[in-house]
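Hey L., structure's done. Input below.
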Amino acid sequence: MMVFLLLADFGESGVVLDKKIMTLAKVSAELSTLAYYEDPYEDPMADEHFRKKGAVIQSFIAEPDQAIFVKKDGHCFLSFRGTTLTTDDWRQNIRPGTEPICADDNVCCDTRQGFYDAYATQYSEAAEQKVRECAATCTNRDECVVLTGHSQGGAIAAVAAVRLADLNPYIITFGQPYTMDAPCSKISSERFYRFINSVGRSRGIVYDPIPFLPGLGADAFGYQIVLSSDDDTGVAYIGLDAQDYFGPLDLTASAHSMVGTTDAPGYLDRIKSLMNNHTYPIRDNGYVPGSLCSEGKECTTGVCEKETSFSWSRCVGTMCEEDENCNEHTDRCDSGVCIPKLGTCMPCDEDSDCTGGKCTLFRCSGSNGLMDDECNCKSGKDCNSGRCEGIAPPLCYPKNPEGAWCNEDTDCISEECSWKFTCVQAGGESDSESKGGFRKIGLIVLGSATLLAAFVFAFRYYLNLRRGYEEIPATLLTV
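Output:
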């Protein structure tokens, strides 16, 4: 999607994502990804970004939990593994109840029992000691410790922050669930960056579900930062210690991944995209007009609306109100922004979105008003090929050659479909009325068999219900 920037709407909103913080976020995202490997060097990223640059990763493992430590560019990073696909880890992750986690001065904060167990492992003391030894070598001890993690790993990083509160750590998490109970004086919210991802779907924007799971009384700390599904020039900073809910949630969990795909980028992908703009500090006052959204607080303009009842919610700009306002540019005003009309097969919600002037089942036609192959259609009249097949949605297909399957003449290049349901040479079926009759008989027989099978299944189910699932005489089940 093309993103149009309305620079007049940009401004400061509270959190500073300068080059230093974004660099720490990128390294944290890389380590949060590597923490899932028993041997982090299985991922080539570990060699490229760490070992080849003199930063050696050290692992601490007590299955199902793991932490990895590295000193890089003058900072001491400790990253915790998120939930793995093991029964023990899931049982630990959802363990109810609370448990106090205490700093060296015996000031404590309450956390979920499962997160406490994931931190209080056989290696926790060794990992803490490694961080303290590293911090002792830093020029400024208050600016060198970074605790991080993805998902459950982010929750464990928050628990570790209480234990290491005297080192004034940065806490940078990705897709972290609610973790600590407020108040907690050992958590420094101004050094806590809590990233939440989103992706674009056919129904619009959807969000990583894990940060919005019920916290059993737990609270959120730090900067709540939502990453856009399609705007890589800025983020939506929601607030300090904010606990705002965003939905709908991504039930496929694609938005929860650290490394995703082109269509559904993960947390590491998003951080890299933001940094590729080389403009610091990164904008934090919301997404630019035209971006997918669910609430106005995500947008630079503060307005998130649907243009039509069938369209997706987008951030609304102030460049235009009608298509006529965009004559010098594109002849198309969409969500308050002048943008180009759409080409063949591209998603649309109204005819004026399309170069061809026709939006059929939410897809644009070609310049001639007809749909190309594999595009949506209602009937053969919508298609360049003249053939429309299928359901949910029906699509345009090329006509079939001689010998291919068919159920009507318009399926075939020759315009001849035999009574055997195959395309034949034009003129090869002299009795077109007869072949049509045979096809109809075949379809009637097939349909009747399907209805009979459905009736038998329903009858058997009804008998089971009436007889309380008693054994049914075999004669009643014989067809």
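Residues 432-466 form the longest helix (35 residues). DSSP finds eight helices and 20 strands in the chain.

-- N.
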